[in-house]
Design a protein that fits this description.
Strand content: 25-35%
Domain Peptidase S9A N-terminal: 7-414
Catalytic activity: Hydrolysis of Pro-|-Xaa >> Ala-|-Xaa in oligopeptides
Radius of gyration: 25 Å
CATH topology of the domain at 14-71 and 423-694: Rossmann fold
GO biological process, one term: proteolysis
Biased composition (Basic and acidic residues): 9-21
CATH architecture of the domain at 14-71 and 423-694: 3-Layer(aba) Sandwich
Structural class: alpha+beta
Helix content: 10-25%
Family: Belongs to the peptidase S9A family.
Number of helices: 11
CATH superfamily of the domain at 14-71 and 423-694: Alpha/Beta hydrolase fold, catalytic domain
Largest sheet: 8 strands, mixed
Distance between the termini: 15 Å
Length: 696
């Protein structure tokens, strides 16, 4: 680049690992100093990198146009999925450009709505976000959790719904937790950790989670310890109370693996903070989720002996089990118990179907959805009133009311959008991966888009942790489409689109399948005339950032640009920070000699090589990201800037008081999106991206 990058001093630190043969392997880590986010050296480096990046982005001709258009596209009312408690209804709502959505309540799902909690007044910069909300069964009390500056740490408080005043809390140092109310509304269960040591709130490992019970009117110091397992420091606890109020159900989780233990305790026999649990599932052999109950019978959604999922009835007194909904050809993604039966959400080639079954599991009818897309459902075992939110690539999220058993979807809102959706179309194509696996992808483009390789195309992927990428609306992507871009969303192994077998095929020693699938999608798009390498960009966040990093280090010739957001990029040390250890079920760990070589082989940080022409790359992170600590992005950016042999720019954009992404204020979302789109438009403008070509 014409202006040099900020200096990134290289130290002589190295770590020693053992491989599967027991040999010691020395691996240099010259940027270890960047792991301390608060050191003066790191702070100076962050400031210098941000100044260099801002100098570059501010000169891009498209940046201002994207900001203006994105602001207009974002400015539409967004009605969230309603839910009901005690005859009161609740939803999130953003009229357009508020930094954070407001939590509202009403006496009818059709309104009128009034504000119950406005997080925009909790901070001057909009970086305090509402991240959890649970209402007592009588609708009288709201337990809500806020996060600050993008951190995963939660602070719980209690608000009186009628008066709108806080009446309890704060409960601090909660993380990866909801709130499960007792049926009488006297208190709720939540999960928490010990307070971190000084300076470790954003980097220290999160272990020894506790399940607590908070009784209304008491201070956090008086909360009752329900569950803790010091002998199993990596176990976490997620509590729920069955809809009939009979059972306290605890899912015991181990990292991000979908497999869990399942413990229950009758609430009618013991107080909330005492009594023995009955272990229904005592090993991590499969996923078990309680979705309803009828006396001593629990209804469980499980993938035990059914990788695509099934519904089982389990009598916990007699031990009798029977399958109600057997494994089918589509993935069973969600089951909700409703009066007289079950609603199921299934996944077919990465889009949803919604079906009603009777209590014996027999299929009654499929609820017609507007098009291929994604549904979110709110339902209760005791109510025939169901709420459904539907979204697709070209349709904003829209809430509906559904009256069971025979009702149709009744729209509750009609989001008005300044965008001509009819000018675009969504198609689905399948690439063939290296080992012959068919890999689906959705392609969103203007109708009649040329197939001569000329389209600026963005390929997006994730491929991990059993997470399914389904059609979803993004106002940001509309601006890309309007300016001639094509958007492609790939459904890679490692995700959950085709069940647990599909997930496991992209984990541990098979993680390379994910990168091969992504490369196959890129090659397919070129072969089918959608684009060509110098007009093709890739994007991914978190585990998707790992995907982008591995893709440009393994196959740099396939891409003209890359955006790696909050990525996991140092695969040898990821498990040492915050909740990183929990990802080992997908990745393995470098201190396991049998996994060391696999991780080293694809770790993006460790596979950058001098003399290689890498595509134009924009790395984004937040200095408060305590999910994937920013050191991953810092170290990768420093090394990529050092080894890049071509003229394509390598930049890092670091959001101050920014975290992993959840809860980011609207203005910051717009600014970041404009920077990414302007960068990509410039990168894909010429045959070979240089700093000068971005300004054409």
């Amino acid at each position: 680049m014409s202006t040099p990058y900020p200096e990134s001093p290289r130290g002589d630190h190295a770590d020693v690992y053992r491989d599967a043969e027991g040999r010691e392997v020395r691996v240099p880590d010259p940027y270890r100093w960047l792991e301390d986010p608060d050191s003066p050296e790191t702070r100076r480096w962050v400031q210098a990198q941000n100044e260099r990046t801002e100098d570059f982005l501010s000169a891009l001709p498209a940046r201002a146009a994207y900001r203006e258009r994105l602001t207009a596209l974002w400015d539409y009312p967004r009605d969230g999925l309603p839910w009901e408690r005690g005859g009161r209804y609740f939803r999130s709502f953003n009229p357009g450009l508020l930094a954070q959505p407001v939590l509202q309540t009403a006496d009818s799902p059709r309104g009128p709505w009034r504000d119950l909690l406005d997080p925009n007044g909790l901070s001057g910069d909009g970086t305090v976000a509402l991240m959890g909300a649970s209402v007592s069964r009588d609708g009288a009390r709201l337990a809500y959790a806020t996060q600050s500056g993008g951190s995963d740490w939660l602070t719980w408080q209690v608000r009186d719904v009628a008066s709108g005043q806080d009446v309890g809390g704060p409960l601090r140092w909660s993380k990866f937790s909801g709130a499960a109310w007792l049926p009488d509304g006297s208190g709720f269960f939540y999960s928490a950790y010990d307070a971190p040591g000084e300076g470790e709130a954003l980097t220290g490992a999160n272990r020894n989670q506790r399940l607590m019970f908070h009784r209304l009117g008491s201070a956090q110091g008086a909360d009752e310890l329900v569950l803790q397992r010091p002998d199993q420091p990596d176990w976490g606890f997620s509590a729920d109370v069955t809809d009939d109020g009979t059972w306290l159900v605890v899912q015991v989780w181990l990292g991000t693996s979908p497999k869990n233990l399942l413990w229950v305790r009758p609430l009618g026999e013991h107080g909330p903070g005492s009594g023995d649990f009955q272990p229904l599932v005592d090993d991590f052999r499969a996923m078990f989720q309680v979705v309803g109950s009828d006396g001593d019978t629990l209804y469980l959604h499980t993938d035990e002996d059914a990788p695509l999922g099934k519904l089982t009835a389990w009598n916990i007194r007699t031990g009798e089990r029977r399958d109600l909904i057997a494994q089918g050809v589509d993935k069973l993604e969600q089951v909700l118990t409703v009066p007289g039966g079950f609603l199921t959400v299934t996944l077919r080639d990465a889009s949803h179907r919604l079906t009603l079954h009777d209590r014996a599991g027999q299929r009654q009818r499929e609820i017609e959805l507007p098009t291929l897309g994604t549904v979110m459902v709110s339902a209760r075992q005791s109510s025939a009133e169901v709420f459904v939110a539907f979204t697709s690539f070209l349709q904003p999220t829209r809430p509906y009311r559904l009256e069971l058993p025979g009702g149709a979807l009744e729209p509750l809102a009609d989001p008005a959008l300044n965008f001509d959706a009819g000018a675009y179309e969504v198609t689905q194509e399948f690439a063939v991966s290296k080992d012959g696996t068919r890999v689906p992808m959705f392609i969103v483009a203007r109708k009649g888009a040329p197939r001569d390789g000329s389209n600026r195309t963005l390929l997006y992927g994730y491929g991990g942790f059993g997470i399914s990428l389904t059609p979803a609306f993004s106002a940001s992507r509309l601006a890309w489409l309007e300016r001639g871009g094509v958007f492609v969303q790939a459904n890679l192994r490692g995700g959950g689109e085709y069940g647990e077998s599909w997930h496991e095929a992209g984990t541990l020693r098979q993680k390379q399948n994910v990168f091969d699938d992504f490369a196959a999608c890129a090659e397919h798009l070129t072969r089918q005339g959608w684009t060509r390498p110098e007009r093709l960009a890739i994007q991914g966040g978190s585990n998707g950032g790992l995907l982008v990093g591995a893709s440009i280090t393994q196959r740099p010739e396939l891409f003209g640009a890359a955006v790696a957001q909050v990525g996991v990029l140092d695969m040898l040390r990821y498990h040492l920070f915050t909740i990183g250890w929990a990802w080992a079920s997908d990745y393995g760990r470098s201190d396991d000699p049998d996994m060391f070589a696999t991780l080293l082989a694809y770790s993006p940080l460790h596979n950058l090589t001098e003399g290689t022409r890498y595509p134009a790359t924009l790395i984004t992170t937040g200095d408060h990201d305590d999910r994937v600590v920013p050191a991953h992005s810092y170290k990768f950016a420093a090394e990529l800037q050092r080894v890049q042999s071509g003229e394509a720019p390598t930049l890092i954009r670091i959001q101050t008081r920014g975290g992993h992404g959840a809860g980011k204020p609207t203005a910051l979302l717009i600014e970041e999106a404009a920077d990414i789109w302007a960068f990509l438009e410039g990168a894909l403008a010429g045959e070979a991206a240089t700093e000068a070509s971005f300004l054409l």
